[in-house]
Design brief:
Layout: E1 2-6, H1 10-17, E2 24-26, H2 29-35, H3 39-49, E3 54-57, H4 63-74, E4 80-85, H5 88-99, E5 104-109, H6 112-120, E6 125-128, H7 130-135, H8 140-152, E7 160-163, H9 169-178, E8 182-185, H10 187-192, H11 197-213
Parallel strand pairs: 1-2, 1-8, 2-3, 3-4, 4-5, 5-6, 6-7, 7-8
Helix pairs in contact: 1-3, 4-5, 6-8, 8-9
The protein binds SN-glycerol-3-phosphate.
SN-glycerol-3-phosphate binds at residues 6, 26, 28, 129, 131-132, 164-165, 184.
Length: 221
Amino acid sequence: MKFFVDTADIAEITELAETGLLDGVTTNPSLVAKTGKDFVTTVKEICRIVKGPVSAEVTATDHAGMLAEGRKLAGIATNVAVKVPLTMDGLKTCKALSDDGIMVNVTLCFSPAQAILAAKAGAAFVSPFVGRLDDIGQDGMGLIADIVQIYNNYSDFQTEVLVASIRHPMHVVEAGKLGADVCTVPPAVLKALVKHPLTDKGLDAFLADWKKTGQSILGGT
Ligand code: G3P
């Protein structure tokens, strides 16, 4: 499974990139707005820090506008994945950009039917929003199960399932059980994945016992 971080915050991305666990980054207009920084400059900086796919979203809603914005974003760096919404114009733009060899991430996916169309349009990634479905009492991980099953039925579907709108570690665990390709995770959730109280308790006990020996590994004999 690949891990992308879901933020446009350069400091958070830099910190997580240093762990070696980061395979990419996803942004969206709300995450960019939160930084208060210039969009293109921020995407350029993120693409310098992380070598994997960096998703940058168009804000036009018509095909011509999305195509122009998509080409500009793709021109920033070779690892940019242009993010388009799952609308008819978004799918038309996905097809056109994918045909030009540009990586496209089709976002705001909420149904298996939508995900089939994203694969047909040649998307590199489809982003189903599990947290937003859970928020309205629908089964977010059920959608992932359906999409993975459908995509596995068709060898010509090359689209990777990028689980988005993740809210807690169990979304990542369930995504792993289902065989999703990528999880894009808010920084806090990525950090929470590491934590377990018994790991902390066990390490404390080891260190307390070791301290009693008065030895030091690097101290040498
Ligand atoms: O980046 C897309 C998605 O991950 C947004 O998630 O938390 O706004 O539902 P959220």
